[in-house]
């Protein structure tokens, strides 16, 4: 099952992943150095956006390095120290993006609800598919290989559903930042940050689709 096409797949996905990571890091670092004109920290910007849209009951927490996320279970926004305490374009864009997710949750945004409903299945599939695939290959049991591919398809579906959730959260963030009157240059910088971050989700989905297509191709050989 492991032939030249597999190593080509690995090379292509590696290039996609490394390219996306490099671009994201370059944009984040660039705009971390650019202060936001209203001098708000990311945490302050997050709380103001929540208040602006009348969203209550959402706690803005200080997390660890790289921890920027919205948790619907606790209805809270967690920001990394750089975003929570930072007064940069990157900090503001990051904070407003996460509040965008809180906004989605508050209004029952359908793609977010769909993504949340398949999380248990994804957790199972992401841990089991590779084990079943290897077992199916080693034991030459086609049904196990097929089941592995089906489970991997669930993971791919989750990544595809994630795309509109992330894009929409960024769109909500940009709408808010446009509304509060940030200078055009800062809005453009925030857009660059959010676009770069969205690229990581696109890259992950693309590599997963390529992997799935390869698995399906091998299944018919």
Task: Describe the structure in brief.
This protein is mainly alpha-helical. Helix content is 76%, strand content 5%. The chain is elongated, with a radius of gyration of 20 Å.
What does this entry look like structurally?
The chain has 221 residues and is mostly helical. Helix content is 76%, strand content 5%. A three-stranded mixed β-sheet has the order 1-3-2. A hairpin with a 4-residue loop joins strand 2 and strand 3 (76-79). The model has no long low-confidence stretch (mean pLDDT 93).
Main sheet record: 3 strands, mixed
Total count of strands: 3
**How are the strands of the largest sheet arranged?**
1-3-2
Helix content: over 70%
Please report the number of helical segments: 8
Task: List the quaternary state of the chains.
Answer: single chain
Element-level helix/strand string: HHEEEHHHHHH
Tell the overall outline: elongated
Instruction: Note the beta-strand portion.
Output: under 5%
The whole-angstrom Rg is 20 Å
Low-confidence stretches: none
Class computed from helices, strands and strand pairing: mainly alpha
Distance between the termini: 9 Å
Mean pLDDT: 93
Features:
single chain, 221 residues, mainly alpha, three-stranded mixed sheet, 5% strand, elongated
């Amino acid at each position: 099952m492991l032939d030249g096409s597999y190593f080509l797949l690995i090379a292509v996905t590696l290039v996609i992943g490394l390219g996306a990571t490099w671009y994201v890091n370059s944009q984040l670092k660039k705009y971390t150095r650019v202060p936001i004109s209203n001098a708000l920290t990311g945490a302050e910007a997050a709380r103001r956006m929540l208040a602006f849209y009348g969203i209550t009951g959402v706690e803005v927490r200080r997390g660890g390095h790289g921890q920027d996320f919205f948790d619907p279970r606790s209805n809270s926004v967690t920001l990394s120290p750089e975003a929570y305490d930072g007064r940069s374009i990157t900090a503001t864009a990051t904070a407003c993006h996460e509040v965008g997710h809180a906004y989605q949750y508050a209004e029952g945004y359908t793609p977010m609800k769909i993504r949340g409903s398949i999380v248990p299945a994804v957790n199972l599939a992401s841990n089991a598919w590779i084990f079943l695939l290897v077992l199916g290959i080693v034991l030459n049991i086609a049904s196990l290989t097929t089941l592995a591919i089906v489970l991997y398809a669930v993971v791919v579906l989750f990544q595809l559903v994630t795309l509109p959730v992330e894009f929409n959260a960024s769109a909500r963030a940009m709408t808010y930042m446009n509304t509060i009157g940030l200078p055009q240059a800062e809005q453009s910088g925030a857009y660059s940050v959010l676009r770069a971050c969205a690229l990581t989700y696109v890259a992950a989905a693309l590599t997963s689709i390529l992997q799935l297509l390869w698995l399906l191709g091998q299944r018919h050989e």
